Amino acid sequence: METRKIQTVGGGTYTVSLPKEWAESENCTAGTTVNLHTHIDGLLVIQTPESRTTPRNRVTLEVGNDDPAEIEQLLRAAYAAGVESVVLELPDGYSDAQHRAIERVTRNLTGVTIAEETETHVTVQTLLDASEVSVRQSVRQLQFVALSMHRDAMAALTTGTTSDRWGDRDEQADRLHAMIDRYFERGLARLDEIDALGLTRPELFTLWGTANELERVADHAERIGTIADQLDGQPTGSIVTALEDIAQDVRTVVEDAVRVIIGDACVDTARQTLATRRAVRQQITSLDRQLFESGDADYRLTRALDSLARTAEHGGNIAEFGLRMAVRDGALTASEASTDDADTTSSTAETES
Q: How confident is the model at residue 349 (pLDDT cuts 50, 70, 90)?
């Protein structure tokens, strides 16, 4: 890091010299116009109009006879990268399967539409405006969807109840996570995007990390639902009661942790959430031992217990984000943020699908 002394020129204007090495690398000379970005977190950033860190807003991809799944992956990657317009070139025209893949992406990603279509070109455009997007509210919605999926999955596991809305909510969770991921990516490179979202960079990172944890909560809800479909019969009454109690506590961990992140609860709630997670771990260990010793329980229930345990860990990871946020903002000291969890570091680093 270099330092520069602020000086004044005629009229009382403040000036500061630019590092020569940076100016040369960005092709800046006398008379070059640069952009000045002032941010809500107190930063002033200088950027050239053609900065190499600025992402391309329009890309052209030649897909030819590519597999429809590959076309869908390309479009999703472009969306996540923050690209606003993608032109797909298909010199020999596109097949029905390719067209369905393109339509599937526009249907499943927020704000994406087919802007132009010919026999050999398809332009897919994202119409989202960052100033109209609330990442915090999107995280709130993602939590609601993920926990709704979890409730239905547990109902299917313990009572055999099924829901025909399962697929729609899974798509909704993916759609919300993809949108949050997109704006995190754009915020890394587009300085004006951060201001349009009304967030500081640490806030955006915390919300993005929370969304990643919630996306995994939804994945485990789907896994529990799949296990429920595979069971030969329903669990016995005592096991059902234990499962329902654990599931309720697990959802409380996730819900309370997210409340801290989005500002609906104080840091004390985060600490209580981590205490609840420790209690849930003990409950799960006890029930797992009970299932093993009984000898007549369906082995698949242990897989469901594993998903419940991992869901609690993801909720705990969100609570840990809340503690970091409190330390960063001066709401408590680092020593007060201690969770007394021996495996805090390992649980935060967990990256299973």
A: very low
